């Protein structure tokens, strides 16, 4: 091989789309959500102070046309403004993201992703981006914007959704009719019937991490009631109990979550049989070893459940609505695949290779959603995948 020792190394900016795919550094984006006053600002300030030497962009929510942006450079915090085309990012997301089919429109996805990429071109790349939503935002509308196909070559990736709840008020919020969420577009007809679904429910059901904050305001007993109710809604999320949002360390707790590219052992043991909450719960479907040819059956079953909100051979219409799904599929040829889904959007990809881990014996699919208790997903899956 020719090797010219004198030639200077070529410098490549690995944070832009001009960089070769294999060199491109992707910046994680974490969505931080939570009911009004749960402690989002406190948590974001804590992250900015607790991390050292990293450059973090916090896109604070604002209801006007610009979004406040804090860029942390060492000890110095600089306020900037981010223009997001047609107004507040969360509002445009809330009303415009989904076509009737449930597909996120490319133009809107581009708006969100481009706004952040432009920002990075102006300010240099960040190590992390934290996007704080309004207290009333439904993260299920926002997540697909940043969950971009690898093939599209984005410079950012969705790292996870962190939901803060206020230990003192969360149970009341979950039962408060004034917090009712308006219908998700394609299931509107179900919304006036059945149990109450509040903003607090959707913020918990979509979360990868749930921070139960203001633990100092409740007794041990109140705290365990809160925890049990939250776990019954979302059996997948990691739960941290905090005061002032303080966690033992940031990585793996609030940052570097990799919630959309992994399925770990704690997720594999997700609890899914308590239905303490009348509206949303978690169900787990054991999935035996599959033949490679059965992947199409799994895909077809998921499309019926996630897109049509129906069990394939069901005689009667169902009233469930899946918010988050996650799973691991194990094949008899040794392949392992990971399922990830938010509302109607889902992906099945090869699991990252982990040389230290033995191939799991069997797989599992976990569904979190409204009215899932009592639906026999397991039998339906077994009938469809055989
Ligand atoms: N007792 C107690 N108070 C807290 C804790 N965390 C935050 N607070 C206080 O709760 C209030 C609300 O906290 P914020 O961080 O502003 O909450 P937020 O979610 O950003 O609020 P909005 O922007 O209104 O949605 C503030 O007065 C905080 O000082 C905690 O762990 N314990």
From TrEMBL:
Domain CobW C-terminal: 317-384
Keyword Chaperone tagged: yes
Classification via InterPro entries: CobW-likC_sf (IPR036627), CobW-like_C (IPR011629), CobW/HypB/UreG_nucleotide-bd (IPR003495), P-loop_NTPase (IPR027417), Zinc-reg_GTPase_activator (IPR051316)
Pfam families to which the protein is assigned, alphabetical: cobW, CobW_C
Keywords, alphabetical: Chaperone, GTP-binding, Hydrolase, Nucleotide-binding, Zinc
GO cellular component, one term: cytoplasm
Top-level taxon of origin: Eukaryota
Annotated CobW/HypB/UreG nucleotide-binding domain residues: 28-239
Record-level Gene Ontology MF annotations: GTP binding; hydrolase activity
Catalytic activity from the UniProt record: GTP + H2O = GDP + phosphate + H(+)
Leader peptide range in chain numbering: none
Family stated for the protein in its record: Belongs to the SIMIBI class G3E GTPase family. ZNG1 subfamily.
Protein name as catalogued: CobW/HypB/UreG nucleotide-binding domain-containing protein
Protein's organism: Cylindrodendrum hubeiense
